[in-house]
Amino acid sequence: MQRACAVFALLFAMSANGATQGGSLEPRYNSEFTYDEQLLEKMIRMEVEMDKWETRMIEQLGQLTSLREHIDHLMKTEDSRLELIQEAYVESRNNLTALQSRTDGQVQQLIEKIKKEVGTTPNILFKARRVKNETPSSGEIIVFEDVLYNHGSGYNSSSGVFTAPVGGTFLFTARLLSQSSGSVFFEINVNGSMNSNGALYGHQGWSYASADSVVRLLPGDQVCIKLLYSNEISNGGLLSDINSKSNEFTGVLLHV
């Protein structure tokens, strides 16, 4: 707008100067003044339009600037979210790694504990069948002479006595089979005393008298099977065939 005013002042001065120099040519100067006035009017309109264009450009530039700032803000926000997601992922992965490490350690400790416990319990186990004397006397040790296995060498097939090679908790089982309709009374004897007993009386056919006992032994303690009441064994005494009807004596170390 200032530029338009300056141009208008310049043209007005030129028109006034021309009018002073030649009064007789006034119509011609009037025509020139009219032309200059029209030109000035056009220039003013152009200046106004330029101002309008400049204003619109400034507005559009402001809008573009705001849009760019908004986009920058969104990008920063997304970058922050990505950083948070990445941090959460890294933290979760670290937590899972730590948990896996702790779990592996606990499992390994459990395995070592089991190995240690298994390793400290010796394999003490025996099983013997077939009695040596089918008609034993009262109080006589029953000798099982057919040894199926004897880990730890605790059982003596000559004497029928088991001697504990180590101290610990043992399980002993025994069964005796009488001849048809016979009776059987026996005991599991620990260090000379009855610990458990089995009995069979007044039956029909072949039947077992059985007994079991869980005892705590010291190294050198002895366990055997003794007969009770020999006069109750009838019809030929014990049945000693090596088959499903066989007599047997077993023992196993449960824990030291």
From TrEMBL:
GO terms for cellular component: extracellular region. Keywords: Secreted, Signal. Residues 1-18 form the signal peptide. Gene3D superfamilies: 2.60.120.40. InterPro entries: C1q_dom (IPR001073), Collagen/C1q_domain (IPR050392), Tumour_necrosis_fac-like_dom (IPR008983). Residues 119-256 form the C1q domain. It comes from the Eukaryota. It is found in: Secreted. This is C1q domain-containing protein.
